[in-house]
Specification:
The protein is an alpha/beta fold. It folds into two domains: 222 residues, Rossmann fold; 177 residues, Rossmann fold, CATH 3.40.50.2000. The strands form two sheets. An eight-stranded mixed beta sheet has the order 3-4-2-1-5-6-7-8, sandwiched between helices. It has a six-stranded parallel beta sheet with strand order 11-10-9-12-13-14, with helices on both faces. The longest helix has 23 residues. The chain is globular and about 65 Å long.
Length: 413
Amino acid sequence: MPRICILTSQYPPDMGGVGHSCHRVANYLASQGLDVHVLHFRKFPESLPIDEAVEMTSEGGVTVRRARICHPDWRASHAPGGKRTSESEVLTRYNREMFEIVSALQTRHRFDLLHGFFLYPAGFIATTAARYHGTKSIVSIRGNDIGKYMLDPLRMEFVASSLRNSDYVTSVAASLLDMADRAIHDISGRSRVILNSIPPEQVKSGAKPDLRLRGTVIGTAGLMRYKKGLVYLFKALARLRYRYEFTLLLAGDFFNPEEEQIHLRQLDELGLRDRTVITGRLSRAEMFDHFPLYDVLVFPSLFAEGCPLSMMEAMTMGRAIIGSRTGAIPEILKDGESGLLVEPGDSEAIERALVRLLESPNERKRLGAGARARSSELSPEHELGEWLEVYREVLGGHVGAEFESRPRLVSTA
């Protein structure tokens, strides 16, 4: 079986959908007998020798190496008395150290394929090292890596290089592939959309969280940040606060303290703080415990959305969903059947959708049932089959050829 190495900047126990997806895909592939290695880049304030920087563990049939890579905070160097360092200098050193570690591992283990999960840094380093060592590469677009970085003057060329040098490109949304193909580099004939899946053994809830919730419970779940468009949900609810009794439940944590302060200020300005419950960081198991509390979940993302795992997890629990027409959301939800779709940045459309669901518990139940049915179509077996087809195309031969005789996946829990 081929030996592969998946490069990523997120991997459990880190938070974030990219890390959870990388973990899932690595374990799916390992369940089919592939020799799967994961190289997890972690930022570190100083350089370390390679033999000290890399720690290796075996996790569920996957060899995981966590590498501490020098990436100091360049902004801190601009404080009085600090040695001034530019962001460009930091990125150059960061890239060099990642490349050196991948090169050392490639020389030692002779991977048949380097797979970058996220265009930068993982995809850039994977494709650069693959070309240097004469091996194959795949890059996977996940969202911000194309929607944000293609407009970043310091990172746009890294993204372009990833697309240009890769043997194959995957994405969690057709719109993201289209953006890459039309705006950056031609990837026609070597790209594919592979939607996320939710392993069925993870779809379970435990003890009911003890939260003070009143009325209809509306909100969102996951890592909260600007691109998630929560201010438009807040604006919609602010206009409804005197008409309906509801609680705004935000299950999860904010991306950073600055994002938290911005969102809290918006809640204050819109008069929603007294109706809001914020859980803080939750494990995936704890998140599943919270989903049954919701009557309606809203995912009002603005741009570069991938295939939001929190939304898909809520769908498996039969929750009514409102989502923006961005990223993979309209590829997952069918408007009026498995959820309600709104245009990004349209608080009035969110308000109309909320009124529709607030007025009709039966409509919430119907859409929740449709969401659960749709989530069952996005099975782990289907996702694995898509990945194996890509790997066969890139590597040739019969990668996972015996998969059709394996009706069940090995658990990734």
